[in-house]
C-alpha cells in the first residue's frame, strides 16, 4: 500500500511539481492550499507525512504544526517544513514547535523526495517491533523503545520524533563522542552540510526537557569541533 503524503502550499504550481515527483516515486499525494484545508485533509486522511509551507492564509505553517503536535491522534506524523523564509530564527521556531526537518525554497524536487524517503524510513525503523522489551536507562533517564516514551525522575516527558531518536543514539553510546554527522544520520536518516544549526536546535530542545539545568548540562556534553556525548552513569 502506497504511503500517503499531504503537500501544503498556497502556491499551486509548487504543489503540482511536488505531487508529480512524489507520485512518480510511488507515493499517494493529498494537496492542500491553506492551513484550514490542510487540517481538514489531515484529520480525514491521516497521512504518513506532511510537507508544509510556512507562509499561508487561514493558519500558517507554525500554527498548523502547533495544532498537529497538540493532538495526540496526529502528533506522531512527521512534518517537513518548506519555506522561502531562510532566517535562522524561522528555522529554530519551526523545529522548536516540533517540525522534523526544514527545506528552504528554492529547492530541488528530487532532494525533497530523497528527504521524504529518509524520514519515512526512519519512522519505519522506529516502529519495528522488538523481540523483547528494550529500555535504555542512564541516571534518572528511562527511554522505552517499545512504548516510545521517556521518563525523567519517573515523570513522563514528551519528545518529538527527532528528539527521541537523538536521545536513543546518546543512551546507546554512553561516554562515546558522536559526531554531528553521526547524530544527523541517526535522528533524520541523512546528513548534509547546512543542517548543523538544526541539530543544535534539537539538542537545545532536548536539554531543556531532560537536564536539571540546561545551561550547565549534566547529561549531554558538547565536544567542541566534533559533536556531542552523553555522560554515562559510571563517569
Written description of the protein model:
This protein is an alpha/beta fold and 235 residues long. It has eight helices and twelve strands. The chain has helices at 12-24, 35-45, 61-70, 88-97, 109-127, 161-172, 180-188, 196-210; strands at residues 4-8, 28-32, 49-53, 79-83, 101-104, 135-138, 141-144, 149-152, 155-157, 178-179, 220-223, 227-230. The strands form three sheets. A five-stranded parallel β-sheet has the order 2-1-3-4-5, sandwiched between helices. A four-stranded antiparallel β-sheet has the order 6-7-8-9, covered by helices on one side. The chain is globular and about 55 Å long. The protein starts with a strand and ends in a 5-residue tail after the last strand.
Separation of the first and last Cα atoms: 48 Å
Count of discrete alpha- or pi-helical segments spanning 4 or more residues: 8
The count of strands amounts to: 12
Q: What percentage of the residues does DSSP assign to strands (E)? A: 15-25%
What's the gyration radius in Å?
A: 18 Å
Helix content: 40-55%
Main beta sheet strand tally, sense and closure: 5 strands, parallel
Q: Going across the major beta sheet, what is the strand order?
A: 2-1-3-4-5
Low-confidence stretches at least 5 residues in length (pLDDT < 50)?
Answer: none
Salient structural properties:
235 residues, alpha/beta, five-stranded parallel sheet, four-stranded antiparallel sheet, 8 helices, 12 strands
